[in-house]
Amino acid sequence: MSYDRDSVPLVTPGLRLLPWETDSGKPCFLSTHGAPALLARIADEIEADQLCDGAHVLKGAQAVLDDQKSGEYAVRHALRAATQCLGDVLRIADSRGARLPRLTGNDHDGDRDRDDGTGDDEPQVGAGAFG
């Protein structure tokens, strides 16, 4: 699985980009309507695992780069793993970024008020960053 952010449509409000694809390589989305759901929790766990894997791959790639005796195979393997992890991290960033509250056009003072269409700038119950 590789992530091409140019081929993924902009995430519509209310939909979450999931950390996996269909069998044909298309992105998967989830609509939770703001309520925590089993599938959202599974996606959270997969994203956490992907970020952990990325940290390990980063350390391994750095070790390969620091070793002057690393051969072409080791460098290519490290680069392939790093590329995969970078794709995962970009997908996670896009997914989480799309779920952040949007700033209104009137927010010139730097406030990070919600723009959820309710006219209320206070966070709504159950409207967490992960579900």
Detailed description of the structure:
A two-stranded antiparallel sheet has the order 1-2. The chain has 2 helices and 2 strands; from the N terminus they run ββαα. With 131 residues, it is mainly alpha-helical. It is 43% helix and 9% strand. Strand 1 and strand 2 (27-31) form a beta hairpin. It is elongated.
Notable traits:
single chain; 131 residues; mainly alpha; 2 helices; elongated; disordered C terminus
H/E element order: EEHH
Largest sheet: 2 strands, antiparallel
Spatial sequence of strands, sheet with the most strands = 1-2
Q: Unreliable stretches, pLDDT < 50, 5 or more residues?
A: 111-131
Radius of gyration: 19 Å
Annotate the secondary structure layout.
Layout: E1 15-21, E2 27-31, H1 38-66, H2 72-98
Antiparallel strand pairs: 1-2
Provide a quick synopsis of the model.
With about 130 residues, the protein is mainly alpha-helical. The protein has helices at about 40-65, 70-100, and strands spanning about 15-20, 25-30. It is elongated and about 55 Å long.
